[in-house]
Amino acid sequence: VTRATAGDGGEDEDRLDRKSDISCDPPVEESLFDEIKRFAGFTDEDSRRLLALMPAVAPHAQEIADKFYARLLDHEEARAVFTEGEAQVRRLKGTLADWLTSLFRGPHDQEYFKSRWRIGNVHVRIRLPERYVFVAMNLVRRELHGILDESPLSEAGRRQGHETVDRILDLELAIITESYQRDYTDRIMRQGRLAAIGQIAASVNHEIRNPLGVINTSVYAMRRILEKAGAKIDGIDRHLDKIDRSLRRSHKIVNDLLDFARGRSPERKQVELKQILDEAVQLASVPPGIRAEIRVEEPSVTVFADPLQLTNVILNLVENACHAMGASGDLVLSAATAGDRVTIDVRDTGTGIPAANLPLVFEPLFTTKSTGTGLGLSIARNIVTAHGGTIDVVSSTERGTTVRIALPADERR
Ligand code: HEM
């Protein structure tokens, strides 16, 4: 089972194992790490030296971590990064001490690289300014050199120790800055795509909406004319129905594009989730072979949300679920309160999403369907995020897909 996640808040323990919209996989891992090592001149000999230095350094790890955070907390802007207070700093001192020990312990292999990449991504995710990383790394550098200076090593051993410490810290810096670079490139690409969508939306709206309106009116007029004339021409109703359906689809595409480009802010009121779920299922054309079930905790669950937007989100998820199931399957929509959050699950027994596609499902224009704009889940994410919520996808190709939306509970109840 793999996950994709989007939105803000609601962070929990396993967040780093998820594919979030900013945390990306290491790029062609092996060659990148090897290339960085080669450039830094880091060899297996360095790994051996570091291991040999570990007994000298490990006893000082906690003390270095304490100094490190004292320095960061001394700086007003850096301090602002620690949003969870003292407990967080205490926890981070522990992680920094572990990080320091693992620098020396190694092994400096792909697993090591992955763990460092993950740490880089944590800092990217919290939007820590990159410049702080350089300053902070120098702090560590100075402390480690200080310990070596005090250690009972030979002159040559000490010199080698200094060189090795510099090399490993250079590796660390290179990996962290590469995570920042990756994130930056991803964001630029995303912005480019968004700008392109905005332009397309404006021109589609301008060029297509009017002709669609004309077709709509003409279909209506034709029905009236036929009705008045009492004419019964074989197949004509069927064709008019087809035009109607195609019109509805075209309208939806235009509206999706516009919604996405404009990102209307929610007009909130207290809404009953049961009503929203009912309406979304009614609006969707659920094939007769699919059993749709709505389970809502009693007493009824309410949220403070834009009913139209929320219905659109659920409708979109229901349509995706139906598409994944084809002619038959089970669709379960459920809503429940969990602490200060309300969760809405849309679960299907469809084909599931291949793990490789999961990180992309919230990306605008990503689609595996032959029809559709690839905007549905991006719009859903934008709407949910604008409501202060999160949206997650858990999927397996054996069991199907569950999309979970978590919204802040309605405090006004
Ligand atoms: C040499 C540079 C740095 C190293 C080696 C380092 C190391 C780490 C490590 C090991 C973690 C835990 C990652 C995890 O949860 O797996 C972490 C998290 C964090 N670091 Fe750093 N850090 C560095 C610089 C900084 C700086 C300069 C700041 C702030 C000014 C900072 C703020 C944070 C915060 C707030 C977290 C917690 C994020 C979260 O769990 O939500 N770090 N760091």
Describe the fold and architecture.
The chain is of the alpha+beta class. The chain is 59% helix and 13% strand. The protein contains 12 helices and 8 strands. The protein has helices at 29-40, 44-57, 61-74, 76-79, 85-105, 110-125, 130-150, 155-229, 236-262, 273-283, 307-325, 376-386; strands at residues 2-7, 269-272, 290-296, 302-305, 329-338, 341-348, 390-396, 400-408. β7 (390-396) and β8 (400-408) form a beta hairpin. α2 crosses α8 (155-229) and α8 runs antiparallel to α9. The relative contact order is 0.11. The model is unreliable at 7-22 (pLDDT under 50). The structure holds protoporphyrin IX containing FE.
